[in-house]
Amino acid sequence: MEKSEIYELIIKIRDNRDEIAFSKLFDFLAPKLKAYFLQNKVTSENAEELTQEVLSTIWLKSYQYNSTKSAVSTWIYAIARNKKVDFYRKISGISHNEEDIREFLYENNKNDQIRENEIKEQVKKISNDLDSNQKKIIEMNFFENKSHKKIAQELEIPLGTVKSRIRNILLKMQKSL
Amino acid sequence: MNGTVVKNKLIFDFATGSLGPSKSIFTSTYLFLNSKASSINNTFEQLLGDDLFSNDDAKISNLKYNDCLSKPDEQKEEDSNTLSPISKLVGPLNDINWKQVYKGFSEFILNIKDDDELKLIKMEPGASVPLHSHGGKEYILVLSGSFSDEYGNYSKGDIQINDQKIKHTPIASDVEGCICLTITERDVIFFGKFGSFFNLFTFIKSFFK
Known about the structure:
The complex is a heterodimer of chains A (177) and B (209). Chain A has helices spanning 3-16, 19-39, 44-61, 72-91, 99-107, 116-129, 132-143, 148-155, 159-176. Chain A folds into two domains: 3-107, RNA polymerase sigma factor, region 2, helix turn helix motif (Rna Polymerase Sigma Factor, Chain: A, Orthogonal Bundle); 116-176, Arc Repressor Mutant, subunit A (Orthogonal Bundle), CATH 1.10.10.10. In chain A, 76% of the residues lie in helices and 0% in strands. In chain A, helix 2 runs antiparallel to helix 3 and helix 3 (44-61) crosses helix 4 (72-91). Mean pLDDT of chain A is 77; it is low at 96-116. With 177 residues, chain A is mainly α. By secondary structure, chain B is an alpha+beta fold. Chain B folds into two domains: 3-51, no CATH class; 85-184, Sandwich (Jelly Rolls), CATH 2.60.120. In chain B, helix 1 packs across helix 3 and helix 2 packs across helix 3 (35-53). The relative contact order of chain B is 0.14. Mean pLDDT of chain B is 81; it is low at 188-209. Chains A and B meet through helix 2, helix 3, helix 4, helix 5 and helix 6 of A and helix 1, helix 2, helix 3 and helix 4 of B.
């Protein structure tokens, strides 16, 4: 599904409480959200519960979505990420509620004057600059949350190399930002 | 790692949701006060959002779309949206029950269950902290006023990250003083067979910092 289609579904949900639009969004998103939680080492059962929570939040809080602030994928990602953080805080017995802080942060970021296109270009620039090895490491480190040690084992390269590569990637990102 | 890289790593870890509670509050306050940091976070979240949408599908076993059509929770009120994340936790900075450490320097430790200690520090106008270094890494975010040290001048929304190698003498602005949010990572303590040897070594080394 194209991003523009997802955007239209969100708008229909936001403005018309359109359940058919929501069921289409569900069919696209639920398997991807579940995959995200599984990647973050959540059990299959909990992953589905968290997926339900994210989609319920989208249904309830679609009025908060503002296209001038962020892309629809970014908005949804932030909701999923916050559910993941809260889930892990809950298991580790840390009870103070931080979700409100983060939602409020997202809501009030009047500083985001960078337009979506500019952000896209930055992201593209960063991705183009990275070679396939670096992309692999970024993926494993930041998207799969694998430890440096695990990456070193899987790619069969020394730990020091992994660390210095990640440092180089961050440097590169910093330069292009 | 140089300071900017450490900053970007902190923002990246916030974007991926892998920070502990103390650093998470610290970083959300940083993003609230600093528009450059906030736009870097946006870029990272954009990357991560694109990645989420390009995930391979996992098989859904029980969930149906109408399980997610929940009703709004009436009790939950919308919060007022003008305070920074840290002010939402501790209230107005002026009303805090500051504990004086020595003349011109007070602190308030936030009781957060985490390995990293989150605290607020307040320096009166012109106050200085004697030359010191750090056991663990220290993160400083200026909430109001400004301070300067051997490395530069820091005002509202700026952060400084210090590791063990850094020695500095911060001095608060003459006019407005300075209130900062700080994180101190706990010192590393060595246990086991050679533990006492390493601790002794660290102890001796601390005199040469």
